[in-house]
Amino acid sequence: MIKHKNIFQKITIALLFSVSVFAQKQARIVEDFNKNWNFKLGDYPEAINANFNASDWRALQLPHDWSIEGAFDKDAKTKQAQGFLPAGKGWYRKVFTIPANWKNKTVSIEFDGVFKNSEVFINGKSLGVRPNGYISFGYDLTQYLNFGKENLIAVKVDNDSQPNSRWYTGSGIYRNVRLVASEKLHVGKWGTFVTTPEVSAAKSKIHLEVTIDNDNASAKEFKLVTSIVNAENKEVANYTSTEKIGAKTSEKKIHDLVLDQPKLWSTENPYLYKVITKVYEKSKLIDNYETPLGFRFFNFDSEKGFSLNGVPTKIYGVCLHHDNGALGAVENIHAVRRKLTLMKEMGANAIRMSHNPHSLEMMQLCDEMGFIVQDEAFDVWKKKKVTNDYHKDWDAWHKQDLEDFIKRDRNHPSVMMWSIGNEIREQFDSTGISITRELAKIVKSLDTTRPVTSALTENVIEKNFIYQSGALDLLGFNYKHEDYKDFPTKFNGQKILASESVSALETRGRYDFPDGIKAWPTKHGAPFDGNADWTVSAYDQVKSYWGATHEENWKTIKKQDFMAGTFIWTGFDYIGEPDPYPFPARSSYFGIVDLAGLPKDVYYMYQSEWSNKTVLHILPHWNWKKDQEVEVWAYYNNADEVELFLNGRSLGKKSKQNDDLHISWRVKFEPGTLKAISRKNGKVVLEKEIRTAGEGSKIDLKADKTLIKNDTYDLVYVTVSMVDKDGNLLPTAMDLVNFEVTGGGKLVGVDNGYQANLDSFKVNSCKLFNGKCVVIIQSNGKNENIQLKATASGLQASTIKVEVN
């Protein structure tokens, strides 16, 4: 009995200790504030009042983008650049209760992004306005709250002045919102800055600056503890100091630590640590704050390009806009992870955040997945690009916006360069000198560990006043790949990167047989011989007049050792900017992957060049007219040659010559099987087959997950394909497919990647485009398995189930 009693006492003590530790970890309370909002389009200034009747307002969960829910309209004020979708004004309201025991805490609200011109009200009081739709911001609510009672928050969003962007922005509270409660003595907003002044595999120094806010009416003495925790959640270094701070003040405290044998962060192994900052008052934990930490060192060199941790590394980058296809601007970490996973599997190791601050989730995932980030602040300065863009807010807001941008993102190890602008108009007049110097100075006042760059279009020195400022550490040039070879002479001693390149045009699954490289159009406003269905061939042979094909650009970049790398325009198609076509085209053609997240053929060219994967990809499909001459391309790597067979007959072996990136055959079509075999030293490396598809037999459903959480956020993407009785894709199928979702999910988007599809992203049906479309299902919070049922005329219904945890 005594023995059993001792065991019981030990268990009890252990449980009490666990509860105590858990309670201590909750010193800072961070609550998801996305749920239970009400929304209505229009202008309702009286909605700030508690007695306002909002019974006819729509209930929803944030993040939310009302533009993506609207209809495409040729006469929309947003115009072609934003995909002909509506903008306007809207209001959000939420009634919530604050616990009475929070009365002695500091309570704030954090918005990751509201597009745009937001004004936030709490219990009828205005907290402030924020014009910039991409900036994260927050407000202290404490003095206006009714503790233990109901409170009303209202948010006005004004995206009515159009056009205000050169791409799709979305409208509304489109990123996450949090409520944060801390003791009066706490770490300030974005209050830590961690740097690694010396890094090696043997030893690294860690320098931590912590901004402490004391909202108390009296001075305080406190203990500040810094812990470095590894990816296995084990503490590997710590430092403690006793500090003092005055009443109603904010002060910076410094901790310096050393870590032996740190694991280095790299694109192949993005090992992450955490800095856990704890504040104790009289041995009581009163605040805790986490900061990401990655140990890495990098260098840009004028002759050798870029290196990471001492290893020469070419930057294989893509530019990304912030929209998530059929979700619009709505930010969802699962959508971002899917996007980045596709880029990683292609071989990309870098992301340029075009042309504005992106979400916190994007930054976190770039850290976790191993992407080098060019973090970009502005698309315009004082000089406009469109009538109502950021130039109107420049004078009043650019300093605070830039400072907040740097403070939020400077702890992310993935960030390796700050871009202060993209194709800025001040490049061409002397004001570019003073503004560049001002912005670079602001950046350097907050972070000296990364170079400052800007994406330039002008490589004639006498015309480029941003370059003449002398304030850039790294020169980024957009396009004009033919001129790169002259840069070491022209920009002697300068570090250089292709900050934006390519702008080639493709539609997934459309094949016009190549007859040379074309520019559509040859110059701005010039007529061109496009396709009647608003498509562009998926062969890499059509480009914008200012750009290059993918192959032209990459052949140039890979030869230039001095070039740190390239950022392709773009990784994905995005809503808006549907060059070269007018309405009904409403999304871009530039992506390596289409808007639905389905790769175009050129994806495999990059995979064969940028990744370690063994690749053999042949195009086009194999459904043509009898005896039609078809050009067959093959992208491959890790092999000496590829042999092509048609119905078992060899059509010959081919190898890439000189700087070729693909090989090709001209083949007279006959139905059957086209087969490619790659070999190295005579041994088979890979085999790929494409078969002629017969009549449609069924709808094939493939989910990217078999299990999702019932948290109301998790997503599953289902690729929908029409196949024949043998499972071959019907590559030209355009059938309408209807969808029904039951159980623990709801349909939140459909898309087929066709750039001129004017059907809504938010309906329960979608036409296949070249055989495929995608359905996006989101958890609805029910703990029930999800079932998707797909039906099409003349075919048996297909279903797929996804388990919900």
TrEMBL record:
Location of the Glycoside hydrolase family 2 catalytic domain: 304-455
UniProt-recorded Gene Ontology molecular function terms: hydrolase activity, hydrolyzing O-glycosyl compounds
One Gene Ontology term from the biological process aspect of the record: carbohydrate metabolic process
Domain Glycoside hydrolase family: 699-801
Domain Glycosyl hydrolases family 2 sugar binding: 31-180
Keywords, alphabetical: Glycosidase, Hydrolase
Domain DUF4982: 628-685
Location of the Glycoside hydrolase family 2 immunoglobulin-like beta-sandwich domain: 193-296
Record carries keyword Hydrolase: yes
PANTHER family in the cross-refs: BETA-GALACTOSIDASE, BETA-MANNOSIDASE
Family membership: Belongs to the glycosyl hydrolase 2 family.
Protein name (database record): Beta-galactosidase
Source organism per UniProt: Flavobacterium nitrogenifigens
